[in-house]
Recover the amino acids of this structure.
């Protein structure tokens, strides 16, 4: 009755240098029209396996819409998305998630009435294909509990495990969100402004986590961010979006020195880095 | 409700179509009120049918009890119900507007129980009858030798007037624009200094007024009994599901379709007539789940 | 706002949690003993009250699986309850099957009906869902009302008696006290099963769906399927309750399918508290006792019902159990 086409993936691929024929995500001419407004148009992008690609641009540049298209939350009006060799254009979110794509949201999207541990449990249970089991006692399922606890420990959330998620701090909620995202062991992780509203310490936790995950597992990261320190600290490449279109795609150095980008977007960001 | 057939099959069909128009337009008046309230307030008023029923019973009391002329009743009764709706909004609904949708559904459901029982306790369980006003009694001979009740033609006329009037209201007046704005984004409307509290109460009362108007107009055409509210709310639900919640043209389309089902079904398929609306709704749900006029189309 | 069903305290240290649990177990055990001994403890009349409370409690608990756990507000739950009644009544009248066999049939037919209706209803958001369940519920009512040749129309199906129970047990089911104990055993078993389901991974997933269906979809689950499953299971339990009701009332009539019957589990759950597993049972108890008391004085019971529901929704959304437990937590 409940199909499960995900396998529990325990391989730990070493972090290889991205080669041009190791593309995990291929986006061709992707577009989304709302009436007369093109929120996203004509975006072409190849994301290499295991890279960390940052997406920057002012508000309204289309970053979140882009994520919505990739994750199945919205249907594109044009273009194609190919993930790991499979055409996922227009698939519903749960199917795309099953294939190994996971995303976080700009606004906290967790289960506020459940404990922090239960939040992660739901995702772990779903990943393991156990969500349909009706005759077990969920809170005593040791493998799932252990996996959830392990993930919480990695994010330094263990002390909050039994707290109701609605009662913890904003920054901690963002971390719970990231834990839930990671619990389904995705290969492509879309993080939508993960450090927004976080304290410097919390931001560090996130960046450290991403770096340790990159080193130990088969992850590719897409990160939209406004915090340029995070961007330049983590990104292998940066995509700059403007008015729904791809403006520049390149290494941090290329982006930093690109005249158009400098002029339009990095003006105040450079000041931020300097201070 | 039906006229006498004289013209054979063509006459029979014309009669069925007239009945369809008649029923359809009346249903439109009632269903569009439900749809408007949802469109602007995001609330499905489960008591909408009860307000319709209240309008009909008030018409009965005004005409038969107080001897009020029909035209005055048409003015007074719906306004009285609208006034009641203002009270309901200020005293009850205001608690649930900001909460999760389930709470407003529950409250209007409670309202349904309260209104239904109040009507039953006030007027009893028997059936009441209201005669059409003297001016509109009797039948008139139409094309093809059909004899059609004059009052039913009046209902068609009223329905047409209401249709045009509402369309003008929403598209050509400031009030209509405000309602559409509030429907699209209540926070934004507030920022623009539109008095949303007034809009909320006003829309709720307006929806009630439409329902009661439908009740008053329907009273001389149908028997007035305590179950009429239930029947109408189900019909209204089917209409907005078929047409699309929150959509003005959707309500019209859905009402006309249902009118056709009743008019044609009543004459040609009396056995399964009761099931047809549900079947129609089920088909629409399978093919276009958000209604024929799509998702949350503008008013 | 309803609290989550499993966490009874906001921040729970193991000692608090286990002492609360121990108290709950103690209270439930005492209640069970009292329930078993009931016919010898109270006046004859109250055996009927107790039977009704048990049956309606199960009905309300099945509703809460959809509402409190999965977050779907259904106004047509009586369709499955009434269907269960009709199935048992018809089987008893025509074939005199043992009661257990009739109940099994009732459960299966009700589940099938729930699956069909649910298929249409769960695809849409909660506003549509509420409307559609009301509409489809009334459709079933209309069919039962009109289809005289099968359902005997508004007169309902009566004139049957339940003679044998099944499993080779010789029970005089005509004796209210005996029937009460049968109902007690079956309801307790059903509730235990329901509780198991609620505490399972499936139950966890349903609770997640109530709070944030989108997030659940992004975890890789087809939310619609889970909602349909919950709706079907709830329909099955409602069918069981309805099946137990038919021999109790000695009639299966269309009123059991009407939306006013669908309102009862809604009210009971709100009354008791949708955020707790036992909320619906508390609500059922209060409801039946209240109904008995009010109807002895006035004709306006439905009016009182409506007023109580309105007041609960406006001011006591957590329900009786929820408000009491919340107050206890605040005091600690």
């Amino acid at each position: 009755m409940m199909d499960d086409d995900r396998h529990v993936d325990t391989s730990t691929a070493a972090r290889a240098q991205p080669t041009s024929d190791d593309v995990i995500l291929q986006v061709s001419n992707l577009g989304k029209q709302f009436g007369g407004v093109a929120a996203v148009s004509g975006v072409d992008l190849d994301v290499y396996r295991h890279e960390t690609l940052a997406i920057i641009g002012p508000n309204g540049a289309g970053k979140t819409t882009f994520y919505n298209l990739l994750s199945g939350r919205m249907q594109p009006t044009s273009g194609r998305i190919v993930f790991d060799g499979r055409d996922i254009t227009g698939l519903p979110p749960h199917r795309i998630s099953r294939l190994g794509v996971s995303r976080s949201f700009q606004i906290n999207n967790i289960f506020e009435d459940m404990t922090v541990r239960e939040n992660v449990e739901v995702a772990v249970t779903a990943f393991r294909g156990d969500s349909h089991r009706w005759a077990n006692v969920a809170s005593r399922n040791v493998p799932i509990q252990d996996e959830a606890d392990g993930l919480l420990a990695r994010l330094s959330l263990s002390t909050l495990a039994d707290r109701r998620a609605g009662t913890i701090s904003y920054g901690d909620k963002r971390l719970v969100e990231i834990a839930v995202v990671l619990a389904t062991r995705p290969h492509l992780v879309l993080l939508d402004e993960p450090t927004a509203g976080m304290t410097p310490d919390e931001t560090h936790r996130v960046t450290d986590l991403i770096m340790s995950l990159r080193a130990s597992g088969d992850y590719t990261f897409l990160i939209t961010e406004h915090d340029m320190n995070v961007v330049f600290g983590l990104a292998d490449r940066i995509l700059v979006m403007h008015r729904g279109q791809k403006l520049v795609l390149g290494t941090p150095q290329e982006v930093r020195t690109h005249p158009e980008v400098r002029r339009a977007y990095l003006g105040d960001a450079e000041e931020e880095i300097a201070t | 409700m039906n006229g006498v057939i004289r013209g054979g099959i063509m006459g029979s069909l014309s009669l069925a179509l007239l009945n369809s128009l008649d029923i359809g337009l009346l249903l439109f008046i009632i269903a569009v009120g439900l749809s408007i309230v949802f469109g602007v307030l995001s609330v499905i008023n489960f008591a909408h049918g009860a307000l319709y029923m209240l309008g009909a019973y008030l018409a009965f009391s005004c005409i038969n009890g107080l001897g009020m002329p029909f035209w005055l009743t048409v003015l007074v009764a719906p306004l009285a119900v609208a006034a009641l709706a203002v009270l309901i909004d200020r005293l009850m609904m205001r608690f649930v507007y900001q909460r999760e949708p389930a709470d407003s559904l529950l409250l209007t459901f409670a309202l349904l129980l309260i209104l239904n029982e109040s009507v039953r306790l006030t007027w009893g369980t028997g059936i009441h009858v209201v005669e059409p006003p003297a001016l509109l009694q009797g039948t008139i001979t139409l094309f093809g030798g059909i004899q059609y009740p004059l009052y039913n033609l009046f209902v068609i006329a009223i329905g047409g007037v209401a249709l045009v009037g509402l369309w003008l209201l929403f598209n050509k007046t400031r009030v209509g624009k405000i309602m559409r704005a509030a429907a699209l984004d209540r926070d934004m409307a507030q920022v623009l200094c539109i008095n949303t509290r007034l809009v909320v109460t006003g829309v709720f009362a307006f929806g009630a007024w439409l329902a009661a108007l439908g009740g008053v107009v329907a009273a001389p055409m149908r028997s007035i009994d305590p179950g009429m509210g239930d029947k109408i709310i189900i019909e209204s639900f089917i209409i907005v599901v078929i047409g699309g919640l929150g959509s003005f043209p959707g309500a019209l389309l859905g009402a006309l379709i249902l009118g056709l089902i009743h008019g044609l079904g009543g004459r040609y398929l009396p056995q399964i007539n009761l099931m047809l609306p549900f079947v129609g709704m089920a088909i629409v749900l399978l093919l276009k789940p958000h209604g024929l006029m799509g998702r949350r189309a503008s008013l | 706002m309803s609290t989550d069903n499993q966490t009874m305290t906001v921040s729970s240290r193991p000692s608090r949690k286990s002492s609360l649990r121990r108290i709950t177990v103690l209270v439930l055990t005492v209640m069970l003993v009292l329930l078993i001994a009931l016919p010898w403890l109270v006046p004859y009349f109250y055996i009927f009250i107790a039977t009704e409370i048990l049956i309606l409690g199960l009905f309300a608990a099945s509703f809460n699986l959809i509402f409190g756990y999965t977050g779907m507000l259904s106004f047509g739950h009586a369709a499955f309850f009434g269907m269960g009644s009709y199935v048992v009544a018809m089987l008893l009248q025509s074939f005199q099957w043992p009661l257990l066999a009739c109940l099994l049939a009732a459960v299966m037919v009700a589940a099938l009906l729930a699956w069909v209706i649910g298929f249409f209803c769960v695809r849409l958001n909660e506003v549509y869902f509420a409307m559609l369940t009301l509409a489809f519920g009334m459709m079933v009512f209309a069919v039962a009302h009109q289809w005289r040749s099968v359902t005997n129309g508004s007169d309902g199906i009566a004139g049957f008696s339940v003679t044998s129970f099944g499993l080779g047990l010789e029970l005089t089911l005509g004796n209210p006290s005996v029937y009460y104990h049968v109902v007690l055993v079956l309801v307790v078993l059903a509730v235990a099963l329901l509780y198991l389901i609620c505490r399972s991974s499936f139950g966890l997933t349903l609770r997640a769906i109530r709070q944030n269906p989108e997030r659940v979809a992004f975890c890789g689950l087809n939310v619609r399927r889970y909602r349909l499953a919950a709706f079907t299971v709830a329909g099955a339990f409602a069918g069981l309750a309805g099946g137990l009701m038919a021999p109790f009332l000695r009639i299966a009539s269309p009123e059991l399918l009407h939306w006013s019957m669908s309102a009862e589990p809604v009210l009971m759950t709100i009354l008791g508290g949708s955020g707790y597993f036992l909320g619906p049972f508390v609500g059922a108890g209060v409801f039946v006792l209240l109904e008995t008391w009010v109807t002895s004085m006035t004709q306006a019971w439905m009016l009182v019902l409506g007023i109580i529901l309105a007041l609960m929704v406006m001011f006591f959304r957590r329900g009786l159990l929820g408000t009491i437990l919340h107050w206890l937590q605040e005091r600690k």
